[in-house]
Amino acid sequence: MKGYFITGTDTGVGKTVVTACLTALFKNRGEDVGVMKPIETGVDPECSSSANSDAKFLMEVSGVQDDLENVCPYRLKIPASPYQAAKIEGKEIDPEKILEKFRALQSKHSMMMVEGIGGLMVPITQRYHVADLALQMNLPLIIISRVQTGTLNHTLLTINAARQHGLKVEGVILNPVEEGTLDAIEAEQGSLIEKFSDAPILGTCPYIHDISSEGIKQNLGRFEQGLKEKLI
Fold it and tell me: Would you say 39 and 15 are in contact if contact means Cβ atoms under 8 Å apart?
C-alpha cells in the first residue's frame, strides 16, 4: 500500500500545506489519492470550511467524495492536544475507530496521505500517542521541519522518537514559515540534519502566500522543483 504519514516537529510547522502539496502532486501523476486527518482540534464541527478545517481543505485539494466522518473521525473545538481537548469536552477518543476509518479509506484508494496532529509524542489517550497511530497505520513517515534556528534539535528529537517506536522515516521536508531568502545558518540546516541523523532531506517546500486549493495548484511546479529524486 502506497502512502505517507505526515508529522511535524511542532504545531504550526506547515504539515497541512505540505500534505496538500504532496496530495496534489501525486494526484497530478495519476494516483487515486485518499486523504485523512484522523483528529482535528480547534475547529467547531458545526461551523467549519476549507478555510479553517485541515480535513476539509485536504478533501478539497484531493477532490475526494469520501464522508467527512471517515476522513476526520474526531473534530474537537478546544485548540489543544487531542487528549486534553477530549478531556475538557467530556469525550473519549477510540484509536480503533480511527483505524477502522483508515482501513475503509485505504480500500478505496491506491494511495493514502495521512496528516497527523502536532508531533509524534502528542497524546491521543493517556497511553496512546500519535507515534502509535502512525505505527499501526504502517505508512512511512515524512517529517515537516522549519529551517529557523532550533530546528536541528526539534528534528533530531523527532527522528529519534520515530525510530524508537519502530517507524520507517522516509525523510524530512523543510518548510520555511516566512518569505525571503534563507541566511547562511538556515541554508545549512538540511545538510546538518542529514549529517547527524542519516535521514534524507526530501526537499524544501516553497513559501506559499495563497493557502487555498487554487494556490496549491498554482505552486505545484515550484513544490516539485524543490523535491529531490529520493521521494519520486
Answer: no
